[in-house]
Automatic annotation (TrEMBL):
Source species of the chain: Halorubrum lacusprofundi (strain ATCC 49239 / DSM 5036 / JCM 8891 / ACAM 34)
Family, as annotated: Belongs to the PNP/UDP phosphorylase family.
GO cellular component, one term: cytosol
Domain of life: Archaea
Gene3D superfamilies: Nucleoside phosphorylase domain
Stored InterPro entries: Nucleoside_phosphorylase_CS, Nucleoside_phosphorylase_d, Nucleoside_phosphorylase_sf
CDD domains: UP_EcUdp-like
GO molecular function: pentosyltransferase activity
GO biological process entries: nucleoside catabolic process
Any single Pfam family the record assigns to this protein: PNP_UDP_1
Domain Nucleoside phosphorylase: 30-241
Coiled-coil blocks: none
Protein name: Purine or other phosphorylase family 1
Length: 275
């Protein structure tokens, strides 16, 4: 484990300022849940693990899943703190990020407990605006999407793929009333407009993670369990373990994809290369 005693704000330092990890602490692929408590639930599925850092909302553990190296770092709520995690983890060698979280579904036929695999995201958060112009797309990496779909299929879990919206506000920014019934301008039309555009779900981090990863030439994706369906009004905290298991298996499949690419001399994995 990296010595944390020399931590500073210098991005070139061995130990990163917020996440408090160095190159020897994390695998190439990292899962990114929001809640630090989810780290225990995720690592319980692995072959073994060690907690390597816990500073503020950033809790990191590293281990293996089906013999593939894997790490997890919690990011807290929202895109600003998620962006810090991606920035600092990238600086110590991480090249693959998978957002693992919960969401609200906004289309009919999406049940509580189902999984949603993001193919792209509406950038309704402000963090990614600090990196790129507003018409820059937040696209998930094709290999990560393929690995998540393959993992969900192998595990037999119900899932949906499509576009996610990432918001900065849990209440007004997602069309919910605020304190004493406050409604932001346009909030009463927000969900209906997203439904008409075939957006599948709403959460708070994916678009920033995808955008920043694309800017830096890294792989990123997102998978969330449906806690609420805004169409039916149903709400249950269900599917968390399925999301964690699917994302963990996806990391193993990505490792196999990388091996197949090396053997084939290919730059990208595609359907013509078997796993």
């Amino acid at each position: 484990m990296t010595d944390k005693s020399d931590r500073s704000e210098d991005p070139n330092d061995e130990v990163q300022y917020h996440v408090e990890v160095g190159e020897d602490d994390v695998a190439d692929a990292v899962l990114l849940p929001g809640n630090p408590e989810r780290v225990d639930k995720i690592t319980a599925l692995w072959d073994g693990h060690e907690e390597v850092a816990h500073h503020r909302e950033y809790r990191t553990a590293t281990g293996t899943y089906e013999d593939a190296p894997i790490s997890v770092t919690s990011t807290g709520i929202g895109s600003p703190s998620a962006a810090i995690a991606v920035e600092e983890l990238a600086r110590v060698g991480v090249d693959t990020f998978i957002r693992v979280g919960s969401c609200g579904a906004i289309q009919p036929g999406m049940d509580v407990g189902d999984l949603v695999i993001t193919t792209g995201a509406v950038r309704q958060e402000g963090t990614s605006d600090e990196y790129v112009r507003e018409d820059y797309p937040a696209a998930a990496d094709g290999e990560v999407v393929s690995a998540l779909v393959a993992a969900a299929e192998r595990l037999g879990y119900d899932y949906h793929t499509g576009v996610t919206m990432s918001a900065d506000s849990f209440y007004a920014g997602q069309g919910r009333p605020g304190f004493e019934g406050f409604e932001a301008a346009g909030s009463d039309e927000l969900v209906a407009e997203l439904q008409d555009a075939n957006v599948k779900n709403i959460e708070m981090e994916a678009s920033a993670i995808l955008t920043i990863a694309n800017v830096y030439g890294l792989r990123a994706g997102a998978i969330c369990s449906v806690y609420a369906n805004r169409v039916t009004g149903e709400f249950r905290t269900e599917g968390e373990s399925r999301t964690a298991e699917t994302a963990s298996l996806a990391v193993t499949l990505l490792a196999r994809m990388d091996e197949v690419k090396r053997e084939a001399g290919a730059d990208r994995w595609h359907a013509g290369l078997s796993l």
